[in-house]
């Protein structure tokens, strides 16, 4: 399965679920940027899908916790930097 195959499947699913055209377009755009980043030789996602199925629920939960924590750290750092900049002016 390639990224393009997955995108076609997502678009079909999203429309059937009643997702807004804006949401579908945003996801399609994001996947397009990601596909460009990977390059033409890396479009096959079968190996990545197999890895995703190999993770247990606990491993997925741990991974999601780490991602959310990283997002909070980045947002906090940006907020602090903006505050410092505002205080200077």
Cα separation of the termini: 53 Å
Average pLDDT rating: 79
Question: How large a portion of the residues is in β-strands, by DSSP E?
Answer: under 5%
- Topology order in helix (H) and strand (E) letters: HHHH
Radius of gyration: 18 Å
Sheet with the most strands, sense and barrel status? none
Note the quaternary state here. single chain
Overall structural domain count: 2
Identify the overall geometry: extended
Q: Residue share in helices?
A: over 70%
Q: How many strands in all?
A: 0
**Low-pLDDT stretches:** none
Supply the helix-strand structural class.
mainly alpha
Number of helices: 4
Give an account of the 3D structure.
The chain has two domains: 1-54, no CATH class; 56-89. Helix content is 82%, strand content 0%. It is an all-alpha fold. The protein has helices spanning 3-16, 21-38, 46-54, 57-88.
Task: Please give the structural blueprint.
Elements: H1 3-16, H2 21-38, H3 46-54, H4 57-88
Helix pairs in contact: 1-2
Question: Which short descriptors sum up this protein?
Answer:
single chain, 0% strand, mainly alpha, 89 residues, 82% helix
In short:
This protein has 89 residues and is mostly helical. The protein has helices spanning 3-16, 21-38, 46-54, 57-88. The chain has two domains: 1-54, no CATH class; 56-89.
